[in-house]
Design a protein that fits this description.
The protein is mainly beta. Helices cover about 0% and strands about 50% of the residues. It contains no helices and 10 strands. It has strands at about 5, 15-20, 30-35, 45, 45, 50-60, 60-70, 75, 85, 90-95. Strands 3, 4, 7, 8, 9 and 10 form a 6-stranded antiparallel sheet that branches. Strands 1, 2, 5 and 6 form a 4-stranded mixed sheet that branches. Strand 5 and strand 6 form a beta hairpin. The chain is globular.
Length: about 100
């Protein structure tokens, strides 16, 4: 899976966090969230199987919100167990890093 180093401060507290999402099929699947400042370039995800995609992030412990862009369109992680409302009338998935 692609690995991208992203952190909020000290690199000594970061850890590798595998993220696997299920969004269906797409040619270009990108993970974006508060850890990428919601950049449309985000973190490219690698196709796995069954409509799942994965990437590895380097993050510090904390709570992060994210969404997925599939071929340029916002999509939800269909397996996300934790979501919060966002100002656009949709929901962001929540990732807890301990």
């Amino acid at each position: 899976m692609p690995s991208v180093k992203l952190s909020r401060s000290s690199a000594s507290q970061t850890r590798q966090v595998p993220v696997i999402v299920r969004v269906g099929e797409g040619r270009k699947v990108v993970l974006t969230g508060d850890f990428t400042s919601w950049s449309a370039e985000g973190v490219p995800m690698k196709p796995l199987s069954g409509g799942r995609y994965g990437a590895n992030l380097q993050l510090q412990p904390g709570t992060y919100q994210f969404r997925i862009l599939v071929d340029g369109n916002w999509a939800n992680d269909l397996d996300s167990g934790s979501r919060v409302s966002n100002p656009f009338g949709t929901e962001n998935s929540v990732l807890e890093v301990s």
